[in-house]
Design brief:
The chain has 2 helices and no strands. The protein has helices spanning about 10-20, 30-70. The longest helix has about 40 residues, at about 30-70. The radius of gyration is 29 Å and the shape is elongated. It starts with 7 loop residues before the first helix and ends in a 7-residue tail after the last helix.
């Protein structure tokens, strides 16, 4: 028993502190469903925004390449 240098009061105090500071979430099924749908919607919007940005970048690069081939400056047009 000499190897245990902690007291039970310290352990319980740490557990109580952890329980008090932990964020509680409502456990209702409707809340979980709503949170799931919001997460899905946010993920879908992020993917769409990334795809849109990729298409715009591709379009700009294509325009730049074409203007360089024809010897025109795209900034002046």
């Amino acid at each position: 028993m000499a190897g245990y240098a902690f007291s039970h009061e310290t352990v319980f105090a740490d557990l109580r502190l952890a329980a008090m500071t932990r964020e509680r979430e409502p456990s209702s099924k409707a809340y979980r469903q709503d949170r799931f749908e919001n997460t899905e919607r946010a993920a879908k919007e992020t993917i769409e925004a990334e795809q849109r940005a990729r298409r715009e970048k591709t379009k700009r690069l294509k325009e730049l390449r074409l203007s360089q081939q024809s010897g025109k400056d795209p900034a002046t047009s």
